[in-house]
Amino acid sequence: xxxxxxxxxxxxxxxxxxxxxxxxxxxxxxxxxxxxxxxxxxxxxxxxxxxxxxxxxxxxxxxxxxxxxxxxxxxxxxxxxxxxxxxxxxxxxxxxxxxxxxxxxxxxxxxxxxxxxxxxxxxxxxxxxxxxxxxxxxxxxxxxxxxxxxxxxxxxxxxxxxxxxxxxxxxxxxxxxxxxxxxxxxxxxxxxxxxxxxxxxxxxxxxxxxxxxxxxxxxxxxxxxxxxxxxxxxxxxxxxxxxxxxxxxxx
Length: 251
What we know:
Helix content is about 50%, strand content about 0%. By secondary structure, the protein is mainly α. It folds into two domains: about 1-145, Cytochrome c-like domain (Cytochrome Bc1 Complex, Chain D, domain 2), CATH 1.10.760.10; about 155-240, Cytochrome Bc1 Complex, Chain D, domain 2 (Orthogonal Bundle), CATH 1.10.760. The chain is globular and about 45 Å long. It starts with a helix and ends in a 20-residue tail after the last helix.
């Protein structure tokens, strides 16, 4: 199977390729868009470039499945990622969120040197491929058993979430496709922690400045509590796959 070959190749070459390709990145010059949080005039989700192009294309889900074969090497055929947070769950994510994040990585507005070489147009295609794979990812059923924290401080986590997170991510963690707010319920705890820490420190360069400010006063206990709570939030049952489900598209 081509996916297994790709997984083997990723394991052997990802580290070496990522640094070299990300440093050079000649293809990124053709897909520039927006600005990153380090720029003085940065505005979150200012759009432009490949993001806007992909958003206005009619998605081909069948081609999206073919494009996703590259993604499946790390995010798994089911889109469930890894419990240790190495790779996030993608399954069920909003299309506009996927388009924005993928376009930002390709334009180097979000740092992801491991993913960058495999997200280039030479690997997966142009803006149409971005639109297609986003549409396919949304069709995938979510992980019924995501990685969670220790469950020791969930009452505090619930309180913090209700006071600080619902305005953007919703009371149930479903986010908002039209506003580019990601679906965060059911995401792996370890991945949430890493992204949260990067956002707080300014390392996630395409982060929403409102969130950066919102979480600056959170203690380590607050961080663990609220993200543990988020990882345990249940997506709607219709979006969740059965335990042990295997994506038939990759058999």
